[in-house]
């Protein structure tokens, strides 16, 4: 089950389309969808989570809490809509494309992909692009 929660005035235009896409992303990695909760928020909200749970006093676009067990993908994914907007502008991409990248990024972590080492980060970016392309493909 995938749910979308809003701690800011932002809302997804088509939750059903995003839900279907995330399920297909998970299936494409030969995993099963458990409970995934997306929480869209602002910078202040996510900064407080970053300080409280990770002891990081920095802004970030995403924080994910992984509850995956085996191949059952579950977790809470907090996304700062403000950060995504700023990053989209900085990288010269549309907001919705950057949002899809970040949404896929959280799930890809749950699927076992890392991004700290250079090689891992390159693979993560490649997987993000692959999954973004899946958004536009009908089931």
For the record, the CATH class is Alpha Beta
Tell the overall outline.
Answer: globular
Superfamily at the CATH H level?
A: Metalloproteases ("zincins"), catalytic domain
**Alpha-carbon distance between the termini?**
18 Å
Q: Please tally the β strands and state the result.
A: 4
CATH fold description: Collagenase (Catalytic Domain)
Number of helices: 5
Helix vs. strand class = alpha/beta
Total domains, how many?
1
Which architecture per CATH? Answer: 3-Layer(aba) Sandwich
- Work out the strand percent: 15-25%
Which stretches are low in confidence, meaning pLDDT under 50 for 5 or more residues running? none
The largest pleated sheet is described as: 4 strands, mixed
Radius of gyration using CA atoms only: 14 Å
Mean pLDDT: 95
Give the strand order, joined by hyphens, for the main sheet: 1-2-4-3
As a percent range, the share of helical residues equals: 40-55%
Name the helix and strand elements from N-terminus to C-terminus, one letter apiece: EHEHEEHHH
List the helices and strands and how they pair.
Layout (H helix, E strand, L loop, with lengths): L1 E5 L8 H14 L3 E10 L1 H12 L7 E5 L5 E9 H11 L3 H16 L7 H18 L4
Parallel strand pairs: 1-2, 2-4
Antiparallel strand pairs: 3-4
Structure notes:
With 139 residues, this protein is of the alpha/beta class. It has one domain: Metalloproteases ("zincins"), catalytic domain (Collagenase (Catalytic Domain)), CATH 3.40.390. It has five helices and four strands. α3 crosses α4. The radius of gyration is 14 Å and the shape is globular. The model has no long low-confidence stretch (mean pLDDT 95).
């Amino acid at each position: 089950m995938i749910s979308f929660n809003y701690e800011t005035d932002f809302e997804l235009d088509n939750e059903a389309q995003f839900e279907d896409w995330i399920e297909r992303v998970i299936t494409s990695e030969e995993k099963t969808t458990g409970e995934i909760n997306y929480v869209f928020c602002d910078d202040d909200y996510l900064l407080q989570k970053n300080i409280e749970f990770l002891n990081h006093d920095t802004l970030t676009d995403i924080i994910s809490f992984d509850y995956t067990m085996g191949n059952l993908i579950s977790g809470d994914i907090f996304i700062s809509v403000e950060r995504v907007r700023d990053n989209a502008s900085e990288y010269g991409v549309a907001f919705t494309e950057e949002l899809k990248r970040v949404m896929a990024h959280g799930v890809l972590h749950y699927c076992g992909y890392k991004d700290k080492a250079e090689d891992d980060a390159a693979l993560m970016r490649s997987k993000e692009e692959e999954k973004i392309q899946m958004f536009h493909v009908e089931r």
